[in-house]
Amino acid sequence: MNKARFRAANHGWSLVELMIALAIVGILGAIAVPSYLENIRESRRMEAKNELLQLKLRQESYRLDNNAYATSAQLGMPASDYYTFSVTGASATQFSLVATAKNEQVKDVNCKVLTIDQSSNKTPAACW
């Protein structure tokens, strides 16, 4: 009878075991979550860079037909929850395409503003 009572009392976790398990989960979460969020920001940045490259192709196509580069209104900017796209300095010989981070993407501190121009100069270089 004592053996049955001992087995029944030994079903479950002690407070110490529970605290150790929670500490391990907390440490893993503290390491994994920031890394995951950084990967998400990099993925969104990659999408913005792809949009800028597509816009550059559209600019070149527009110039073939019009002998000048398009403004933001003429080119039509893509919609994004994380970047605002625009054209600056559009003329017959030059333009600059700009993607400016917004919402959660502003936490991508070193890459808040991405640009590419008619000569494929990309800034900031570390973000491309």
Automatic annotation (TrEMBL):
SUPFAM superfamilies in the cross-refs: Pili subunits
Keywords: Membrane, Methylation, Transmembrane, Transmembrane helix
UniProt xrefs under InterPro entries: Bac_GSPG_pilin (IPR000983), N_methyl_site (IPR012902), PilE-like (IPR031982), Pilin-like (IPR045584)
Keyword Iron included in the entry's annotation: no
Gene3D superfamilies: Glycoprotein, Type 4 Pilin (3.30.700.10)
Protein's UniProt keywords contain rRNA-binding: no
A Pfam family that the UniProt record links to this protein: N_methyl
Record field: transmembrane: 12-37
Domain of life, source organism: Bacteria
PANTHER family hit by this protein: GENERAL SECRETION PATHWAY PROTEIN G, TYPE IV PILUS NON-CORE MINOR PILIN PILE
Designated name of the protein: Prepilin-type N-terminal cleavage/methylation domain-containing protein
Biological classification of the source: Bacteria, Pseudomonadati, Pseudomonadota, Gammaproteobacteria, Alteromonadales
